[in-house]
Amino acid sequence: MGSSLGFIQDYSVYFFFAAVLIFFAVTIGDQGFLTVNNFFNIARTTAMISIVSFAMTFVIASGELDLSVGSVCALSALTCGLAIQGGYDWYVAASFGLLSGLAIGLANGLLVTKIGIPSFLVTLGMMQLIRGVDMRVTYTNPVAIPDPTFNSLFGAGKLFGIPSLIIWSVLLAVVGHVVLRYTTFGRRVLATGGNRLSADYSGINTSRIKLYTFMLSGLAAALAGLLYSGMMQTARYNFGEGMELAAIAAVILGGTSLFGGKASIIGTFAGALMIGTINNGLIIMGLDVSEQMMVAGGIIILAVAFARKPSH
After folding, report:
1. What DSSP string describes 119-154?
2. CATH for the stretch 2-307
């Protein structure tokens, strides 16, 4: 019985995802929910959250937290948009955007590992600081991105009929899974989060591992900002609002321990898609925003509570 319960808890995100799909299929299947286009739409609109969640998996698996990803997402989008308007080629502008996220991730990591400030406080402060910068730089005005190549590659384009946003998320899910499961870095991340003292004694530079995970998180958030810009063909200061909470929820739903040491990229992907499916289904059902938030929040709490293994 115990092993069966453990199996169900380990894979609870997939059971809940299946339950969500069945529920919406039965209740609103005749309203366009059960169509290939709608499933593509769910995967497409969830791509940015998925990508940030993959990197957040590494951060949480190492025993830390990053609340600045939403603000970094907007910063990258605005940096890229302003660079394109300033006459830079799209690939140079995109590099500027990615570097801005990498720089914030580096700053977060150094403040946590070198000065010893808890990551929750560091990234909470950085979230506010960068969001203020996002608003100040543009005075809350949108920045148009008219470059068709950029918009196709990072947002509106398709390859063999598959939206580029889906390709980005699936590709990075595969890369993240391989890195976490089959590389020395992935094993060291899990060791650092599982028992930092033991990891230190075994020769792992845990501070450097944590620093790398924050840099990875900043880079992923920056890429998400580029994808938002490509999809909307504009950059806005409010891109990524609430992204940090959705990403953390997807990671925890996917089976990653909030205390580190245990993680699953595939589970995180399923968690992100489940959140996107819930939001999509509730919209089709005609619920207003407040009702969507209440129902989605309740479902996530239920799923996370069930997935937690009882302490012995």
Report:
1. HHHHHHHHHHHHHHHHHHHHTT--EE---HHHHIII
2. 1.10.3470
